[in-house]
Amino acid sequence: MPDSPLSSSPYDVLGVPSSATQEELRKAYRRMLREAHPDTGGTEALFIAVQHAWTVVGTPEARAAYDRGNVAHETPHTWAPQPPRAPKQPSRPQTRTYGHPGGYSRERYLSMMREWVGLGEPLRDPYDPALVRSAPHEIRHALADAVAEETTARALTTLGIGYTVWHDVDATGRTAAAAGRTEKVDHVVLGPTGLFAVQSEDWATPVSVRRGDLVPRGEASGFERQPLHELAGRARTLGRATGVRFTVAAVVLPDDDLEQPIIVVGRSRGVTLVAVQSSVLPHLLRTGVADSPRPDGTTLFEVRTRLQQSIRFV
Q: Are residues 269 and 135 part of one domain?
C-alpha cells in the first residue's frame, strides 16, 4: 500500500493500464527493468520501484489482492481519520493546540469524492484503497493534504507547554475572497523561537530549491507556483489581520522528498523561508532559525493574546 494517496500505482510504474493482461504485465516489467537499471541510463530509485511494483502485481493472486485494496506481505494501511485514543496522563505539560488539523482538506476530499462517484450514489467507504487509487489527481491531492497536515499536527504536540499551535487558520485576503477562494495556513506555531507559518505538503515527488523557492523534480499535482513565497504572503495577510509579525514560513515535506533535513531558502519581506523534512520539524521549532528575531517573554504573551482573540478557522 503506498504511503501517499498520490503515489504511483504499480501499473503506472510499469507503464501499463490496470486492464493489462498478465502477459502484458510480464513484458512491461522486463522492459522497465532494462530501462530503469542504472547501467543503462536509469536510476536506482526507479529500478527499486519497478521491482516493488512486480512484487505487488506480478502474480494473479497478488494482483487480485492489490485490486481489492490490499497488498500481500505488507501491514494493512488506511487513509481514514484515526480513531480518538483514550487520553493518557502526560509525563510533562503538553503543547496547547486549537483547531482541527486536516479537517478542511478532508471535507474537501469527501465533497469532491461524492461528486465524482455521483450524487445520490452510495459511498460506503470513501477511503477504500481501490477507490482512492482510481480517483482523479485533484481528489487524491486533497486527501494527501489532509494526511500530511495530520502527520505534522501529531509532531507538534511534542513541543511542550512553551508552544501554542493553531491549525487550519483562515488567511484569505481580499483578492482571494473576491475570487471566491479560501486560503489558509495549515499550522500557526508560536514559541520562544518565533512565530512560524507552517504548511504541510505532499506532492509525491522529490523537491529541489531553485531561484529562491521550491520546484518539483517530477510531475506534481497541486504544486503551487512558488510555494514558499505563497506561504509568506498568506502569513503577511494573517499578520495584518491579527496585528502580529511572522518570523518564519516553513514548508514541511516527507523526508524522502527533500535532500537535506533543513534548507533555509532565503527571505521574503522580512520572513525567513525554510523547507524542512517532516521528522526534523520539532527540532527546527525548538532551535529556531539563525538571524530570525525571537520574542521576549512579554512580547510572547502579547502575541499569543492577539492571536487568541483574532484567529479565525476555515
A: yes
Examine the pLDDT at 1 and tell me if it is beyond 60: no
The per-residue pLDDT for 123 is 84
Question: Structurally, how many domains does the chain consist of?
Answer: 2
Are 240 and 299 contained in the same domain? yes
Q: Is 86 part of any domain? A: no
Which grid cell is 126?
Answer: 470513501
Question: Cβ–Cβ contacts within 10 Å for residue 292, how many?
Answer: 19
Full residue range of the structural domain in which residue 29 is found: 10-67
Would you say 56 and 71 are in contact if contact means Cβ atoms under 8 Å apart? yes
pTM of the model: 0.84
Answer yes or no: is pLDDT of 120 > 80: no
Task: Work out the pLDDT band at 2, boundaries 50, 70, 90.
Answer: very low
